[in-house]
Amino acid sequence: MSPLIDRHGRTKRKLRISLTDRCNFRCTYCMPEHPDWLPKASLLARSEIVRLAGLFVDHGIDQIRLTGGEPLLRQDLLECVHDIGELRERGLRRISMTTNASRIAPKARELVLAGVDDFNVSLDAIDPETFRRLTLREIAPVFDGIDALVDAGAKVKLNAVVVRGDNEKDIVPLLEWAMARKLPLRYIEYMPLDAPGHWKRDAVVSEADMLAAIRERHEVVGQARGHDPATPYLVDGHYPLGIISTVSNPFCSTCDRLRLTATGELFTCLFSPIGTPLGARMRDGIGDDVLAEQVRRAVWLKDAGYASRPGPVDRPLTMHAMGG
User: Fold this and answer.
1) How crowded is the C-beta side of 35, counted as CA atoms within 13 Å?
2) Measuring CA to CA, which of 31, 84, 143, 318 is 20 to 30 A from 199?
3) Among candidates 94, 116, 192, 108, which has minimal Cα distance to 148?
4) CA separation for the pair 199, 192 (Å, rounded)
5) pLDDT of 148-163, one tens digit each?
């Protein structure tokens, strides 16, 4: 079948699927102080997730990332991974997962054996008090989860959102902690995706600010940028660092990603104000051919992205429900 291409000539290769909107952390940049969880009946069943995933794979998606909320809160997570893994026969090449790792230690080896190829672990600070202030949770279970993943032979990458006044002092300590453990790290600029009215431009620690802090102690050399949202750097000649600079230096021109919420709503951009309710229409009995046409149309109409209209997005859906 024909690949999914938008009107700006960008071909979509990656799909992020949120398995649940629920999370056991309370990161301020991700969710409201008192989140309203979706009714469980509104979440996609495993068979529905696989059906929609298969539709996208048949149209050129070859990498799927499982997100949340926190995907470890999904009781049938292992079964989801296994069933999605069967799509490799139809062209799927990679299954990834984004997690806070606090509950992953007992299941790390099972997830690797089930078919998860790599894990992105959210770790915004290594100072216990800073971490507790950011997430309202303890850091020890996260360290245990990272260790369990490494012991299971998993590929692990760390993600850290940097917010001025909260954790910018952890930029260099976190980098050095990751370097010592040979774990790749990506810093992410604070994006306007949390509760309406919460995001402030002056809370953004820009890519330039991060590099300035790191260069006080390390040599940092920029590398050629590809389709990945992170600008790559080499620290001290050997360590791979990435910085996702959506606010100060948007990567929209090379975006190859789509997002599916836990209810099956397709968002062609992280900052799209509205989505396409594929899950609801599927439950209404619409067949795959019609669903595929609606996907193609939604992707084709995808706009230029954050670069074309910077600032907070006006919608009730916050980051924890959208999927990381």
Assistant:
1) 23
2) 143
3) 108
4) 5
5) 999 999 999 999 999 9
130: which 2 tokens? 């800073």
- C-alpha distances (whole Å) from 224 to each of 51, 65, 164, 216, 304 are 37, 24, 28, 23, 22
| Contact (Cβ atoms closer than 8 angstroms) between residue 108 and residue 144 | no
Does residue 148 contact residue 105 with C-beta atoms inside 8 Å? yes
3-state DSSP assignment of residue 309: coil
State the DSSP H helix or E strand holding residue 265, giving kind and residue range, or none if neither.
strand 265-267
- Phi and psi angles of residue 3, each rounded to the nearest 5 degrees, phi first: -70, 165
Distance CA 302, CA 124 (A): 31
Cα distance between residue 96 and residue 155, in whole Å: 10
Measured over the CA atoms of residue 13, residue 274, residue 39 and residue 35, the dihedral's sign is positive
User: What's phi and psi for 279, nearest 5 deg?
Assistant: -60, -45
pLDDT tens digits, 99-122:
999 999 999 999 999 999 999 999
Q: Are 190 and 200 in contact (CB under 8 A)?
A: no
Count other C-beta atoms under 10 Å from residue 290's C-beta: 12
pLDDT at residue 196 is higher than 60: no
Q: How far apart are CA 78 and CA 84, in angstroms?
A: 10
Cα distances (angstroms) measured from residue 265 to each of 92, 123, 149, 262, 272: 21, 27, 31, 7, 12
Gap between the Cα atoms of 218 and 220, Å rounded: 6
Nearest to 163 by CA among 196, 125, 128: 125
Provide the CB-side half-sphere exposure for 239 (13 A, CA): 20
- Which of 134, 106, 3, 127 has its CA nearest to residue 60? 3
The predicted-structure confidence for 230-256, as pLDDT tens digits, reads as follows 999 999 999 999 999 988 887 788 889
For residue 65, what are the β-bridge partners?
16, 96
Residue-by-residue DSSP string for 215-238: HTTS-EEE----SSSSEEEEETTT
- Please report which helix (H) or strand (E) contains residue 109, including its range: helix 108-114
Looking at 121-228, list the stretches that DSSP marks H as alpha helix, in order from N- to C-terminal side.
Answer: 128-135, 140-151, 171-180, 207-215
